UniProtKB/TrEMBL annotation:
It is found in: Cell inner membrane; Periplasm. Residues 1-29 form the signal peptide. It comes from Streptomyces badius. Keywords: Cell inner membrane, Cell membrane, Lipoprotein, Membrane, Signal, Transport. Pfam families: NMT1_2. Its main location: membrane. This is Lipoprotein. The keyword DNA-binding does not apply. It comes from the Bacteria. Belongs to the bacterial solute-binding protein SsuA/TauA family. InterPro entries: ABC_SsuA_sub-bd, NrtA/CpmA_ABC-bd_dom. Coiled coil: none annotated. Gene3D superfamilies: Periplasmic binding protein-like II (3.40.190.10).
Length: 370
């Protein structure tokens, strides 16, 4: 059973395994910078926003970070920033992006809910705010159909997730607990074995038979399908209206205080990017693939890109209620104790942008800055 919501609102937060999660997931070093001068997007020219020379942004080379990929590739961010140069950095894991944010090596970043909750809790609410939504959905349990034919056949099987304590890891552990299947949250041992592997390694493990399935985001889920896997469960079916946050936009609190105009410029670009993606899905897919080739060294095969893109939905709404529920799931699995959520959102700049664009305001589920 999830912990009571009042537990999640305590001002003093401690964790059972946060130090373990940060060390296990964060590793060392920050993201890699974009490769060379980007000829595909506008250069910084015109007046600098708020007089700032550059803004440092972090994201993953991943379909679930489509807003960042397309916004950079199509120049939406740089256009709104004028003479303030955008400096992108690519990360492989949420905790390393949080470390970079703490070290002021990143000002604004795209990141999953679990790292955002962990980072906010660990800093006692002092290091970041969630300022926008970005993407919903895009997560599935994909299995070898010769080994697992139904959701009633998970006992004794080996399932992978990308990282200990990451968003998909929490989701799988919560699902197994609801099905009365016992798993030690730290070791992954139990009635189902949960193996933590990098997204890049999971397809090889699946192909070799080392795992029976995986609870993974796009495009890894669609990669597994091309290797003969079957989608046994689309995580959207577990959430109200089929929507749950998979990627947020976060910002350093210092950055928000010192450069509010730049934050709003980035949010205007994010809103425009999401609208463009919805209006131009085929062009958006091509844009995502072009950025992936630049950032990760190669494009996705057409069958993987097409399937993955259908499974994600860009959104300005941070779907705050689903983040709160994700935190409750982490508590219920034993990965977190008393996560701090009060004040994790500051949606005031986004709502100003949405109002100016004639759109409705988004809600923070009572977890906004007072």
């Amino acid at each position: 059973m999830p912990a009571p919501r009042t537990t999640l609102r305590r001002s003093l937060a401690a964790t059972l395994t946060l130090p373990l999660l940060i060390s296990a997931l964060g590793a060392c070093g920050y993201g890699s910078q974009a490769k060379g001068e980007d000829k595909s997007v506008p250069v910084a020219k015109g007046e600098k926003v708020g007089g700032l020379d550059e803004v440092k942004v972090g994201y993953f080379a991943n379909i679930t970070h489509a807003t960042a990929l397309v916004g950079l590739q199509e120049g939406f961010f740089q256009k709104e920033l004028g003479g303030t140069r955008i400096k992108p950095q690519v990360f492989n894991a949420g905790p390393s992006e949080i470390e970079a944010l703490n070290a002021e090596a990143v000002d604004v970043g795209w990141i999953g809910p679990s790292p955002a909750i962990n980072g906010y809790t660990r800093s006692k609410g002092r290091n970041l705010r969630i300022i926008s939504g970005s993407v919903s959905g895009g997560v599935s349990l994909v299995v070898n159909p010769d080994r697992i034919a139904s959701l009633h056949e998970l006992r004794g099987k080996r399932l992978a997730t990308p990282q200990l304590g990451n968003t998909q890891d929490v989701a799988l552990l919560h699902y197994l607990a609801e099905k009365k299947l016992t798993v030690d949250p730290t070791t992954g041992k139990g009635e189902v074995t949960v193996l933590r592997q990098d997204n890049k390694e999971i397809p090889n493990s699946f192909k070799s038979g080392a795992i029976d399935g995986a609870w993974v985001p796009e495009p890894t889920a669609s990669r597994l399908v091309t290797e003969g896997g079957k989608v046994l469960l689309d995580e959207r079916t577990l959430w109200k209206d089929g929507k749950f946050v998979i990627t947020n936009v976060i910002a350093s609190q210092n950055f928000l205080t010192e450069h509010p105009d730049v934050a709003e410029a980035l949010l205007r670009a994010s809103v425009k990017t999401n609208a463009w993606i919805k209006a131009n899905p085929e062009k958006a897919k091509a844009s995502v693939n072009a950025r992936l080739k630049r950032d990760a060294g190669k494009e996705l095969p057409a069958e993987v890109l097409d399937a993955a893109f259908k499974n994600v939905e860009v959104t300005d709404d941070p779907l705050a209620a689903s983040l709160r529920d994700s935190a409750e799931h982490a508590v219920g699995t034993g990965l977190l104790k008393d996560p701090l959520l009060d004040g994790i959102y500051d949606l005031r700049p986004l709502n100003r942008v949405l109002k100016a664009a004639g759109g409705p305001a988004v809600l923070d589920a009572g977890l906004g800055v007072k």
